[in-house]
Amino acid sequence: MKNDSKETQTQHTLSVYFCGQEDCGPNHSFGPAMRPHYLLHVIFHGKGIYQCSGHTYHLKAGDAFLIRPMDSIYYRADTSDPWSYAWAGFDGSACKEILKQTVFSDTPIFTPETPSRQNSLLTHMQSLLDTFSENNGNDLASTGNLLLILSAMQKKPSESRTDISNLYFQKASEYIRNNYAYPIQISDVAHYVGIDRSYLYRIFMEHENTSPKQYLLKHRLQMAAQLLCSSSCTITEAALSCGFRDAPSFCNYFRQGTGYTPKEFRKAYSGTIYT
Question: Which CATH class is domain 2-151?
């Protein structure tokens, strides 16, 4: 059995605490017991069972199972074809939110649907083992590989039209919030979400009763207004920082959107919180 571990003094947003791998003998078992952190096992070869919350899961090569903090669990290798697996212990304030996006929001096990998805999982797990033992303190490498593993376990979006529409809108609006300062086009938003512009338009009309273009402009103006209220930046700095190509066009859009010129707005609202 190989086990690598690292100690951390503070709990980060997401940290890999240790990794290991083992070729188990027939009927090799652990538990019933609990762990103080998240522990992910990925099976490379063989078979075994995993018991959690009153359920027994029969797992094989390519599958994975998650142990949550302080859950009582038990697992055992098969008699005739015992498993070989690797594991990673991790925790952090972002874990719950990250795991919500994976199959682990509904079940403690993952079974890949295709050989390519299985190969991706095994490759990323091997990379995590390698980087964790060789990264010389580069925690980002280990965290990155863990995120790649979890990305291979992302759950499917709901088949409900309403849920899919909500998902697309959230993804599009998040892209706008994160990229409004750059010269993005609505075609960039549609490409990121993975839908065409006409469908994106319908989604924004459904959720916000406005077009994606107007939504982007409104967000840029809100961010510019916050800058004018809370900083000593120039009008040009506010314009270029919020995705406008120049100060004159920014002033024109700003007056149309707020009824003030940027200078008048700053004088009226300086020091306040604008939303």
Answer: mainly beta
